[in-house]
Amino acid sequence: MSRDSSEQVTKLSRMLRRNMTMEEKHLWYDFLKKLPMHVNRQKPLGDFIVDFYIAAVKIVIELDGSQHYTEEGRAKDAEREEFLSGTGNLILRYSNYDLNTNFDGVCLDIRRNIEARLGIDDIYGSECS
User: Fold this and answer.
1) Secondary structure (DSSP) of 23-47
2) What pTM was computed for the model?
3) Which domain holds residue 80?
């Protein structure tokens, strides 16, 4: 990636952090921000910007709006997933619909994947669940 390209991706990621979707805000403020590990929002990885990234466990979390279900959207997502999984990341995808209708289930799935990657039963320890 060229320096100009890298600067553009960084600039775009900052703009996306300031303008998160309603679903991104919900997941961030009501779950991810409270995790006992650092979570990045709108994180540049290579030429891509992922919605959320947990570096400690190499998990990418993507929230998919309607644009992801077009032919062009599917092709772009396939390219992203090939790159991201090729660098050892686990990609977790949830539709906006799933987030809005089954928020607790989405959070539980994210938590279970984090625990599986860490090889532990409870990311909060025995004091909190």
Assistant:
1) HHHHHHHHTGGGSSS--EEEEEETT
2) 0.82
3) 3-118
Tell me, what's the pLDDT at 6?
A: 73
Q: 90-95 and 48-54: which strand pairing?
A: unpaired
CA distances from 124 to 114, 121, 129 (A): 11, 9, 6
Which CATH number do you get for residue 44?
A: 3.40.960.10
- Is residue 109 in some structural domain? yes
For 103, other C-beta atoms within 10 Å of its C-beta total: 16
Tokens 């599917």 -> residue: 74
Residue 124 lies in a domain: no
**In the chain, how many domains are there?**
1
Q: With H, G, I as helix, E, B as strand and everything else as coil, classify residue 117.
A: helix
Nearest to 91 by CA among 81, 99, 83: 81
| Secondary structure class of 47 (helix, strand, coil) | coil
| Residue 18: CB atoms within 10 Å | 7
Contact 106/27 with Cβ under 8 angstroms?
yes
Amino acid 78: pLDDT: 87
